Amino acid sequence: MATPYLLQKALVEEIKVLFAGYETENAAGKLVPLNVYPQSLPEKTDEEDSAHFPYVVVRIVDGGIPSEEVAASCRMVIVMGIYDDNPDYQGNKTVLNILQRIQTHLLAKRIIDGKYAIQYPYNWQIYDDEDLHPYYFGGAETNWTLPAVQQEVDDDE
Description:
Layout: H1 4-18, E1 23-25, E2 31-33, E3 35-38, E4 55-64, E5 72-83, H2 91-109, E6 111-112, E7 116-127, E8 135-146
Parallel strand pairs: 3-4
Antiparallel strand pairs: 1-2, 4-5, 5-8, 6-7, 7-8
């Protein structure tokens, strides 16, 4: 079975594996791995806005089946946030590096979990607003093809 939910789950796992061993600083100044979440950030465990940083969220946006002859599609966005309180205001470089690593991996691999194929266009964006310092954000919009649903055939007819 192939569903948007299972695609999301596969992408979360793919990104976790891709960034295994990768660490960046959190608000406490400790090197920590990227938190990777499906759909949205979980509830904060404390009052700090930075409790989930650094993070990547894999979010289902929409999808559909335009006709019987065309495979199902699903649009997913991958959003991220990092914390970088360095006074040089260059946290966008870390965001760009994360985005590039994901893009290179997905476009080189092309098929995730043996059944979900990434399609063009692949778009990314960084949110470069110095008023957000020390928080930096970016994201990528990805488009996927899901295996077609096969019509059931009743052999008795």
